[in-house]
Design goal:
By secondary structure, the chain is mostly helical. About 40% of the residues lie in helices and about 10% in strands. The protein has five helices and four strands. The strands form two sheets. Strands 1-2 form a two-stranded antiparallel sheet. A two-stranded parallel sheet has the order 3-4. The longest helix has about 30 residues. It is elongated and about 110 Å long. The termini are far apart. It comes from Halocaridina rubra. One of its GO terms (cellular component) is apical plasma membrane. Keywords: Membrane, Transmembrane, Transmembrane helix.
C-alpha cells in the first residue's frame, strides 16, 4: 500500500515549521475469536502448546535441582577462631620506676602490680625493654633484681 505524505504549513509558518499529514494509518487488531478457534484444534498448534508446556516445567524443575545442588555443595562456615593470649584481654604496662602501692603497705612491690592486674581482670603484663632486641636470651640489666625475678616467676 502506497502512502502519500502531504506537507502543509500555515499562512505564516513560525521558524520554518512544517506539518506532515500522513492520512489514516491502518491498525492491526489481531485475529478475531472465530479466526483463532480455527487454529485451536490444529495438530501443529496442539503439539506446539504441549511442547512449550513440558519445556516450561522441565526448565522449572531443572532450576530447582540446580538451586538445591548449589546449596548442598556450598562450603560450610569456618569454625570460630580461637583467640590468641594477646587478644583475650588488655595488657598492663609494668614500669619499674613508677609502681603504685596498691595494698597501702608503704612500699611499692611487684606484688602490687599483680594485685592491680587481678582486680582489673588483666591477664598480661608488658615489661618495656625486658629483653635485648638483638639477643633474646639477655635480660635488660635494670630488670635484674630479686623483686622483678620473683614477679616474672
Amino acid at each position: 500500500m502506497l502512502q502519500m505524505a502531504k506537507f502543509t504549513s500555515g499562512a505564516y509558518p513560525s521558524n520554518g515549521e512544517a506539518k506532515v499529514d500522513m492520512g489514516s494509518v491502518p491498525t492491526f487488531s489481531g485475529l478475531t475469536k472465530e479466526e483463532l478457534m480455527q487454529y485451536s484444534n490444529d495438530p501443529f498448534w496442539i503439539r506446539l502448546r504441549w511442547f512449550l508446556f513440558i519445556l516450561f516445567w522441565l526448565g522449572w524443575i531443572a532450576m530447582l535441582v540446580v538451586a538445591i545442588v548449589i546449596i548442598v555443595q556450598a562450603p560450610a562456615c569456618k569454625a570460630k577462631e580461637t583467640l590468641e593470649w594477646v587478644q583475650e584481654s588488655a595488657m598492663m604496662d609494668y614500669d619499674l620506676n613508677n609502681v603504685e602501692d596498691i595494698d597501702n603497705s608503704g612500699t611499692s612491690t611487684p606484688e602490687d602490680m599483680v594485685q592491680m592486674a587481678k582486680e582489673l581482670g588483666v591477664t598480661t603484663v608488658y615489661m618495656k625493654n625486658l629483653i635485648n632486641p638483638f639477643n633474646f636470651e639477655d635480660i635488660n640489666p635494670e630488670y635484674i633484681n630479686k623483686q622483678v625475678e620473683d614477679f616474672l616467676k
